[in-house]
Amino acid sequence: MNLSEQIRQAREAKGLSQEALAEQLGLSRQAVSKWELGASCPSPENLEALGNILEADFSGSSALEPPEAPKKRRLWLWGLVLLSCALLAFLFSAPEPAALITAVRFYDETGAQLHPDLGDGWWAFETPEQGSQPVTMVVSFQNSRRADVNAVSLFYTPAGTETFDQREQWCVQAVEDGLDYALFVLRLQRDLMGHLEIRLECTGGAEVSEILNVTAAFP
Question: Is the per-residue pLDDT at 66 higher than 70?
Answer without folding.
Answer: no
